[in-house]
């Protein structure tokens, strides 16, 4: 990890802490997202805790095929929850693809942490926050209202 850019290390450390805040409920802990999600058990536990739903799992995966099965159960669960997963499969997690794993965790954070119970999207919440910080620019979207550059230069 030493050769990774600083932002990757910070992101991985932050996401690991976020995951551990939920895994503590099951007396589990992740040291390294890249290796500790490999068998699907920690990902399974995380999803069950944050969703309050049960997911099928092989509790003692010893072979690669059992690990992949657990990961597929978790990914299928996310898809059934309406979460769009692009470009990631069980083999990517099992192989330790850091970029895709961080993207998966970010997707989970967006769905289960940032979206509020009233149905507001993360995008809408972020837009409301921006509007509260710079009301003088009347920002209503993340496209055309940013073209002048004034809002971002503050």
CATH superfamily of the largest domain: Calponin-like domain
What general outline do the C-alpha atoms trace? Answer: elongated
**Structural class by sheet pairing and helices:** mainly alpha
As residue ranges, the low-confidence spans are none
CATH topology of the largest domain: Actin-binding Protein, T-fimbrin, domain 1
How many domains, as an integer? 2
Strand content: under 5%
Number of helices: 7
* Biggest beta sheet summary: none
CATH level 1 name of the largest domain = Mainly Alpha
Mean pLDDT across every amino acid position: 87
| Cα separation of the termini | 34 Å
| CATH architecture grouping of the largest domain | Orthogonal Bundle
* Helix and strand run: HHHHHHH
Q: What's the β-strand tally? A: 0
Q: Percentage of helical residues? A: 55-70%
Rg estimate, integer Å: 18 Å
Structure explained in plain terms:
The structure is a single chain. This protein is mainly α and 154 residues long. The chain has two domains: 6-114, Orthogonal Bundle (Actin-binding Protein, T-fimbrin, domain 1); 118-154, no CATH class. It is built from seven helices and no strands. The model has no long low-confidence stretch (mean pLDDT 87).
């Amino acid at each position: 990890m030493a050769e990774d850019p600083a932002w990757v290390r910070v992101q991985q450390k932050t996401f690991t802490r976020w995951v551990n805040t939920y895994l503590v409920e099951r007396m589990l802990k992740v040291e390294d997202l890249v290796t500790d999600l490999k068998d699907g058990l920690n990902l399974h536990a995380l999803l069950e805790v944050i969703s309050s739903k049960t997911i099928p799992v092989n509790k003692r995966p010893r072979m690669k095929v059992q690990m992949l099965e657990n990961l597929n159960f978790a990914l299928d669960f996310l898809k059934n929850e309406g979460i769009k997963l692009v470009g990631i499969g069980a083999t990517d997690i099992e192989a330790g693809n850091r970029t895709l794993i961080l993207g998966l965790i970010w997707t989970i954070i967006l769905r289960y942490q940032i979206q509020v119970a009233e149905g507001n999207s993360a995008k809408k919440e972020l837009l409301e926050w921006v509007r509260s910080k710079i009301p003088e620019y009347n920002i209503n979207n993340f496209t055309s209202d940013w073209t002048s550059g004034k809002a971002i230069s503050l």
